[in-house]
Amino acid sequence: MVLLAMMLVSTFLELLGLGLVMPVVALLAKPELVEQNKYLKMVYDFVSPASPQSFLVLLCVALIVLYIVKNAFLALQSYWQSVFIMRKGAELADGLFDGYVHAPYEFHLSSNAGELMGKIAMADVLSLNFLMPLMIILTESLVIVFVFAMLLFLSPWVTLGLVAVISLLTAAVYFPLRGYNSKLGRAYRDEQLAMNKYALQGLKAVKESKIRCAEDFFSAEYARHRDANNIVSAKMTFMGNLPRFLVEGLLVSLGIGVLLVLVLSGMSTGSIVLTLSLFAASAIRVMPSMTRIQYNLTRIKQFSHMLDTVFEDISGIKPEITSAGDSEIVFNREIRLDSVAFQYSGAEKPIIEDFTLDISKNSSVAFVGPTGCGKTTLADLVTGLLKPTSGKVLVDGADIAGNLRSWRRKIGYVPQFIFLLDDTVRANVAFGVPESEFDDARVVECLKLAQIYDFVSELSNGIEHVVGENGIQLSGGQRQRIGIARALYNDPEVLILDEATSALDNETEQAFIDALRTLKGKLTMIMIAHRMTTVENCDDVVRLDGAGLKRNPTDF
User: Fold this and answer.
1) Edge-first strand listing for the sheet containing 390-395
2) Is 527 helix (H, G, I), strand (E, B) or coil?
3) What is the DSSP letter of 396?
4) What is the pLDDT of residues 289-299, one digit of tens each?
5) What is the DSSP string of 157-205?
6) Are 191 and 232 a contacting pair, CB within 8 Å?
7) Cys-Cys link to 26, which of 170, 274, 278, 407 (CB 3.0-4.6 A)?
């Protein structure tokens, strides 16, 4: 509402400026117009100047002051307009990112991180190339409407004719180019997404890329899409400017046509000068508005596909329901997988089918079996990351789907591939906790349990040591142990270890297993492993065969 009020005030100042230009120009050309024109005479009598020259000086001073005030106000309006647009663009990007991070886990299984990042970047692009053009069109349209309203009061038939002709010309310029602009916008969006994808893949896979000598492949693919994007951008800019050349030429022709109409109508020379001065001043202001409207209409059409893509995700991605009720999940007795089945989207058959298993509190159970038999899928079902196709995961008889957030707070999870923040060891262990709430004593305790405190304490900054992006400064085993410390930080009731020792050497693995023994009976442990040495101390071992079917706990 504030911006709309500012637009109306700025439009009024524009009209006032145009209204003052007309008498100044007319009086310079013909001073006797003061007596001939009733409106000028009315103002002249109200001001009561010493002479017509004094009246002209007063008008000139008023015009100067008005334009200074008007331009200062327009500058202020431009600033607040930019703040408003950038804020809306930020809200769009924030909403998109928030939607992605709160989307169900299955959404991320079928999504490309590079494309998601590209779409988030699109939100910022849209603020400048869709929202800003929309605001400019609204502002300039107000100016044009009020200018033509003033002209309509002065010369109705000529103004109506101008409006009709200009409307037809605008439509004739915009609509034939609309389809091509839409095509360019779609190509620009696709090339932007492809650039983001190859840039992210090339940077993330730098180690494998160098070993395979594949740097040129990623560089060439990025450059190919960048070049295509540049060509499309150049065409979009040209198509945005093209209407300006057409409209300006047509408006000049119309201006000459108006002059001929006024001359042929038999209007007096004084009235023609007065009318033409207003039409000329109006044309000087309206022509830039017309070209801005045409240019920004083109930009909106070109970037409409980006808007569709962003809003498709904002409106289409439903957040994961992590709390369907107020009741907390209480874990005192057992976890039960009750006739659970799961089938991945697009898969021909379920990877888990009719699986039933009871896991007592503070017991330890291991899932073993060949790769692809569903071990990690079972762990994801227990955490609620995946929703069973059929069956339920129950904790003390309560379905975890009723309050996933409550259940997940009780879980410590060590995945196969540890993601580390480009931050300190301390921040990585206390993952997701504000720095002001870090518990350094707990961080050290967890590092000791994970058998990595001795290494960390020898670093120059200790737990304040920055590990680099995804722990690039650490070995695989060190990354895994920091991941284990992270899983223990929140003092979980359930600890899930998905191949947690796969990157550890035998000595470190044994030390870690010894540490786990100290936790045995204090929390529930679910282990996924290939090596029998890792699971030999578990209370139960569940073997899964290649078809993903369960076997009851057995001895090996």
Assistant:
1) 352-360, 334-342, 390-395, 398-399
2) strand
3) T
4) 777 887 888 88
5) HHHHHHHHHHHHHHHHHHHHHHHHHHHHHHHHHHHHHHHHHHHHHHHHT
6) yes
7) 274
CA 415 → CA 76, 460, 487, distances in Å?
53, 28, 10
What tokens appear for 279 in the block?
Answer: 């039409």
If one looks up domain 334-543 in CATH, what number appears? 3.40.50.300
CB burial of residue 423 (10 Å; 0-12, 13-18, 19+): middle
CATH 3.40.50.300 in the chain, residue ranges: 334-543
Collapse the DSSP code of 528 into the 3-class scheme (helix H, G, I; strand E, B; otherwise coil) and give the result.
strand
Q: Tokens 């006739």 label which residue? A: 339
* Topology, domain 2-316: ABC transporter transmembrane region fold (1.20.1560)
Chain centroid, CA 49 distance in Å: 61
Residue 289 one-letter amino acid: S
Alpha helix locations (H) across 317-430?
Answer: 375-383, 404-408, 425-429
Please list, in sequence order, all residues whose beta carbon lies within 8 angstroms of the beta carbon of residue 353, skipping any fewer than 6 positions away: 341, 548, 549
Which of 256-270, 300-314, 449-463, 532-546 shows the lowest per-residue confidence on average (mean pLDDT)? Answer: 256-270
pLDDT tens, 104-148? 888 888 888 878 888 888 887 888 788 888 888 888 888 788 777
The residues, ordered by sequence, that sit 6+ positions from 355 with a Cβ below 8 Å of its Cβ are 337, 339, 340, 341, 378, 391, 549, 550
Q: CATH 1.20.1560.10 region(s) of the chain?
A: 2-316
Residue 370 CB burial class (10 angstroms; 0-12, 13-18, ≥19): exposed
18: which residues sit within 8 A by CB, 6+ positions away?
147, 150, 278, 281, 282, 285
Cα–Cα–Cα angle for 261, 264, 268, nearest 5°?
Answer: 100
Return the structure tokens found at 271: 């009235």
Burial of residue 83 (number of CB atoms within 10 Å: 0-12, 13-18, 19+):
exposed
Give the pLDDT confidence of 185-204 residue by residue, as tens digits. Answer: 888 888 888 888 888 777 77
- Rg for the chain (alpha carbons), in Å? 36
List all residues 6 or more positions away from 463 whose beta carbon is below 8 Å from its beta carbon.
Answer: 424, 425, 426, 429, 440, 443, 444, 447, 456
Cα torsion angle, 34, 37, 40, 46, sign:
positive
Residues 330, 357: contact at Cβ < 8 Å? no
The neighbour count for residue 131, using CB atoms within 10 Å, is: 20
- Write the secondary structure of 74-140 as one string of H (helix), E (strand) and C (coil): HHHHHHHHHHHHHHHHHHHHHHHHHHHHCCCHHHHHCCCHHHHHHHHHHHHHHHHHHHHHHHHHHHH
CA neighbor of 80 nearest in space, from 120, 135, 15: 135
DSSP H stretches of helix in 400-505: 404-408, 425-429, 440-449, 453-457, 476-489
**What is the predicted pLDDT for the residue at 551?**
44
496-520: average pLDDT: 74
Q: Which of 122, 118, 124 is nearest to 196 (CA)?
A: 118
pLDDT bin (cut points 50, 70, 90) of residue 548 is: very low
> N- to C-terminal Cα distance for the chain?
74
